[in-house]
From TrEMBL:
It comes from the Bacteria. One of its GO terms (cellular component) is protein-DNA complex. Keywords: DNA-binding, Phosphoprotein, Transcription, Transcription regulation, Two-component regulatory system. PROSITE patterns: RESPONSE_REGULATORY (PS50110). The lineage of its organism: Bacteria, Pseudomonadati, Pseudomonadota, Alphaproteobacteria, Hyphomicrobiales. It comes from Kaistia hirudinis. NCBIfam families: ActR_PrrA_rreg. The modification 4-aspartylphosphate is found at D64. InterPro entries: ActR_PrrA_rreg, CheY-like_superfamily, Sig_transdc_resp-reg_receiver, WalR-like. Residues 15-129 form the Response regulatory domain. This is Two-component system response regulator RegA.
């Protein structure tokens, strides 16, 4: 019995599209999901993901929020318009409430922070929609959340330290010290 059979999805369409620009992660997750019974297609860009959605909208999808050529939410929106019953999960290394709300409004069933493992992704895809998600075993620390937010703003400001410091209402030298340190656990 495969994991999908155990989750009660046998006989159903098990097509899964994974869209992520981290090629190593993409391949690992694809292999893990295939071993759980999904028929997996992969894409490493928004453009390729959109082409695959146009060809055959998947029953399931795992989409990274930030891709080199755009926003993964565009892929979520395309899937939702072509196949409204599709179950989709958004992955991101830059989690914040606004993007989580947007992802859910566009039809995602869950929003997972990277690095998410295959078990977390599988559970998010196959969980009963009426069930609440279980709290994470090891949530990010407050220091890590702060660091992720600073990194996100820094990237959005195109790695301009002065502009990032201004937007965060932080002294530039303080920001430089934070950016020079390793990410907290």
């Amino acid at each position: 019995m495969t994991d999908i059979d155990a989750a009660g999805l046998s006989g159903a369409d098990t097509s899964l599209l994974i869209v992520d620009d981290d090629k190593a992660f993409l391949q690992r997750l694809a292999r893990a999901m295939e071993s759980r019974g999904f028929i997996v297609e992969t894409a490493d860009s928004v453009a390729e993901g959109m082409r695959k959605v146009e060809q055959l909208p998947p029953a399931f999808a795992v989409v990274d929020m930030r891709l080199e050529d755009g926003n993964g939410l565009d892929v979520i929106e395309a899937i939702r318009s072509r196949r409204p019953e599709s179950r989709m999960v958004v992955l991101t290394g830059y989690g914040n409430i606004a993007t989580a709300v947007t992802a859910v409004k566009l039809g995602a069933v869950d929003y997972l922070a990277k690095p998410a493992d295959a078990d977390e992704v599988f559970l998010a895809l196959t969980r009963d929609p009426t069930e609440k998600a279980v709290p994470p075993d090891n949530p990010m620390s407050a220091d890590r959340v702060r660091w992720e937010h600073i990194q996100r703003v820094y990237e959005l400001c195109e790695r301009n330290v002065s502009e990032t410091a201004r937007r965060l209402n932080m002294h530039r030298r303080t920001l430089q010290r934070i950016l020079a340190k390793r990410a907290p656990r």
